[in-house]
Specification:
By secondary structure, the protein is α/β, with parallel strands linked by helices. It has a nine-stranded mixed beta sheet with strand order 8-7-6-1-5-2-4-3-9, sandwiched between helices. Strand 7, helix 8 and strand 8 form a beta-alpha-beta unit. It is globular, with a radius of gyration of 17 Å.
């Protein structure tokens, strides 16, 4: 049975899209069949993160009934499967986001897990995207602004009747000015699912248009995402001895057919 998990945040800039992409890669490394869908229709970033600014067809075409959603999937050289959204403002204006849930139902039985990267903020687009999911994971950074906005997103999920699985604490630098993990758990009243450290290799992976899991598999952030994936699967992950870094991989998406 296919499960749709929304990856949400209260504000932009906390690493929600990188979490969706790298969690997808990590889950795939654990043998799960995963598809990442860019449900942030207003400001889509998944394809941009993976080196393809303009693709057709996209999720927008599925929402508009032009294509079956299974015809809008692409395969990245890392092995990650994604469904991008269009970066066109006109395409965004045409879409009825209330159709997102019904559109995603076309993926039932084609994959085990759909990670739905959704927009941030307390707005109607976020609400429609939350309603399209079975469960929600909240991404935040360890600062009060991000955590306070995450509280609103959790409240929206509760009002929509969508269970919140827990919280991913991202970009943790272990600075004394940061909120501690215990602080974040107490403020959000949700368990921490994983902690991902601040990592220079994440910036390098973004520049390479690669998931850091793929380009720098032994980096601190990669280990954090692998531990997160293992935790969600009820497993444990112990990092291997580091190997030499290899910054090699193509940075484009190939059309994927089901």
């Amino acid at each position: 049975m296919t499960k749709i998990i929304a990856i949400a945040s209260g504000k932009g800039g906390v690493g929600k899209t990188t979490t969706a992409i790298n969690l997808g890669c990590a889950l795939a490394n654990f043998g799960k069949d995963v598809l990442v869908v860019d449900g942030n229709i207003a400001t889509p970033h998944v394809a941009l993160h993976l080196g393809s600014a303009s693709l057709s067809p996209t999720l927008n075409d599925a929402l508009l009934g032009r294509n079956a959603i299974t015809d809008t999937a692409y395969l990245h050289p890392s092995g990650l499967r994604v469904i991008p959204a269009s970066i066109s403002l006109n395409e965004y204006r045409k879409c009825d986001l209330a159709r997102l849930r019904d559109t995603l139902l076309g993926l039932m039985g084609t994959t085990e897990i759909v990670l739905l990267d959704i927009g941030s903020g307390a707005n109607e687009e976020t609400l429609h995207a939350l309603r399209a999911a079975d469960e929600v994971i909240i991404v935040t950074t360890p600062d009060m602004l991000a955590v306070s906005d995450a509280i609103k997103t959790i409240a929206m999920a509760q009002e929509a009747g969508i269970p919140v699985m827990g919280v991913v604490l991202n970009r943790v630098a272990e600075d004394r000015a940061e909120l501690t993990p215990k602080n974040v758990e107490a403020l959000l009243e949700r368990p921490l699912l994983g902690i991902v450290p601040e990592d220079i290799y994440m910036k390098r992976a973004l520049a390479m248009k690669q998931p850091v899991i793929h380009s720098h598999p032994d980096s601190p952030s990669s280990v954090g995402f692998k531990k997160l994936a293992a935790s969600l699967l009820g497993q444990t992950y112990e990092p291997k001895v580091k190997r030499d870094e290899k910054d090699t991989a193509s940075n484009f998406l190939h059309k994927l057919g089901f």
